Amino acid sequence: MSGPIKHIVMWRLRGETQAERLAARTKVKTLFEGLRGRIDGLTHIEVGADISDVDYACDVVLVSEFTDSSALKAYATHPEHLRVRDELGDLRIGRFQVDYPVKETGA
């Protein structure tokens, strides 16, 4: 598949108290935003922490875009990405992912 790929991941995070969950959200956001400019082919990265506090919501969402499917595949094993995953350890208790091609829109 050629062309840009959107990579969206949502997590539920470990934490017994509101403070623990807030700290977990902040850690995930900080670590993933730290990847900006460090991985070839990663053209956009945005991390949002949930503010709804509904019981079925995920805690954090990562919205990223890659130049193509090869760049996304390389990201999966990139040392910086693996470092972030290792630093998060078992903080994540649920993970959901969607990858899809970005359609170019004409002006």
From TrEMBL:
PROSITE patterns in the record: S_R_A_B_BARREL
Signal peptide stretch: none
Alphabetized SMART domains for the sequence: Dabb (SM00886)
Domain Stress-response A/B barrel intervals: 5-100
Gene3D superfamilies: 3.30.70.100
Name of the protein in its database record: Dabb family protein
UniProt-listed Pfam families: Dabb (PF07876)
Domain of life: Bacteria
